[in-house]
Design goal:
By secondary structure, the chain is α+β, with helices and mostly antiparallel strands. It has a single domain (25-91), classed as Immunoglobulin-like (Sandwich), CATH 2.60.40.2000. The protein has two helices and six strands. The radius of gyration is 14 Å and the shape is elongated.
Length: 92
């Protein structure tokens, strides 16, 4: 974590603010293995029925599975549905 990010994390904790706001981190909500919602994303890098790669501020989020569909996409959030088998985060 960069020094600037460490300072922001400490400020968030000190002022009881959500870290995702100050650090610009993605917020990920998962419902079983059927639905993933990612807020605060930076766009879709790759999309196939087996893989959705989403850009985040600190890396990439990889969703793998079968019959994956981007059900909703906006500037703020993306919702992926299907048979999700794996979720990983690649730090860049």
């Amino acid at each position: 974590m960069r020094d600037q990010d460490k300072i922001k994390a400490k400020l968030a904790k000190l002022f009881d603010l959500p870290q995702d706001v100050l650090l610009n981190l993605p917020v990920i909500s998962i419902i079983g293995n059927l639905n993933i919602k990612v807020e605060n994303h930076r766009g879709i890098i790759k999309y196939t029925p087996e893989l959705v790669k989403i850009k985040a501020s600190k890396g990439e989020l990889l969703i793998t599975g079968k019959e994956l569909i981007i059900e909703k996409l906006s500037k703020e959030k993306v919702m992926v549905t299907g048979k999700i088998t794996d979720l990983s985060f690649d730090l860049l």
